[in-house]
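Dock F0G; give full complex structure.
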Amino acid sequence: MPFQPHTVIEPFRIKTVEPIRHITREERIAALTAAGNNLFLLKAEDVLIDLLTDSGTGAMSSAQWGGMMQGDESYAGARSFFRFEAAVQEITGLKYVIPTHQGRAAERILFGAAVKQGDIVPNNTHFDTTRANIESRGATALDIPVAEGRQPQFIHPFKGCIDLAALDQALADNPGRVPLAMLTVTNNSGGGQPVSMENIRAASAICRRHGVPFFLDACRFAENAWFIKLREPGYADKTPFDIAREMFSYVDGCTMSAKKDGLANIGGFLALNDTALARKCKDMLILTEGFPTYGGLAGYDLEAIAIGLHEVLDEDYLRYRIRSVEYFGDKLTRAGIPIVLPTGGHAVYIDAKAMLPHIPQSEYPAWALSLALYLEGGVRSVEIGSVMFGRQPDGSEKPAAMELVRLAFPRRVYTQSHVDYLAEVLLYVNSIKDRIRGVKIAESPDTLRHFSARMAPAHGALLAE
Ligand code: F0G
């Protein structure tokens, strides 16, 4: 028998390194206080392992850095734009490709052109910027994930799917008020869970039947394609590229943050087939992003994305990527720490409601846990719970469906020993979990409050003695 290794190695060598810095627990307490107990407001250099987001934080390859030197910085008609456009068209099959500086700019332009007051936009689960961009149009962002997706510990291969009956109902009940429907792959806010091809196909058919355009929020399309390959019958022998092509074949357009599966540090795009809508979007693009052949990006960014979109579909990369997140999740599960199962594509999500039953939802258990992880281990994560989602457009409060702490992995950045260290931090914090105390909001803006709210201990200290 030939050698069959068990270990999935990082499929790259490290050519450039960036030091990370240990600071003491006392220094972290001071940093946290200065940041108003909001991890978004920390200085990054005060963080040891930064799992705040997988967005724009990845390491680019030597091919991407090399490609950037070929960037054509012409204002109009740059060679780099045509390379970028060809890369997007090759994968998505969509006709019009509109570059934007990141995903939310694509959202703002799409919704600005297509969504009006009183409209409804269904999705498996809207990401926070998507929701905010829809609500800022005076429209409703409707989340209709499958029921399995709302049960953190329930194991199901495709918990990211949209509830097809609910989608059909929403379209039937609101004729003329649904300008488009969306599907987020993978479902970030629902735990990084994938959507099956069957669900994409069926959602597309429902939208067609109602004459409603169907869009993908495609940020993590390659990770979703890999899960389809691993888990959906009939796809094991297909390449991630072919699977991605098929996913996009069912849609009329997509929004994309190239900061995720574009393997770039900045960038995004809107791609679509409708000629009139594309024209409207390009007109809006010129107002705030830039001319349609650069859309707020430098020529070198377009090069980096064109190459990244190709690299992200590499099987060795995707195997390592998904396995390294699962490896971390397995360690936590073995230690009895409740996480969203199975592990998602880009992140491990801790179920703070289950882990900290002594903290009521009104005292933001996931936020409190994220602070403890920083305090004890210098780890930065993000709350996906009632601080992020609890405030309703009318100003009232409604607890989020889940209180999660997301530990999102930058692409190609951390190694297995970083992950082993992270697991040690989690196990330690789990051992002192009864001492973690709830928090309250001291000061907050009206929208997207998690980015800048200042928080305070609800009972005198973050950790009981
Ligand atoms: N859609 C999804 C599903 C996302 O996860 C994000 C960003 C966006 C849209 C917006 O893209 O940041 O390029 O404007 N998510 C990041 C995160 C910020 O941490 O999950 P963007």
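Observed: The first helix runs from residue 25 to 34.
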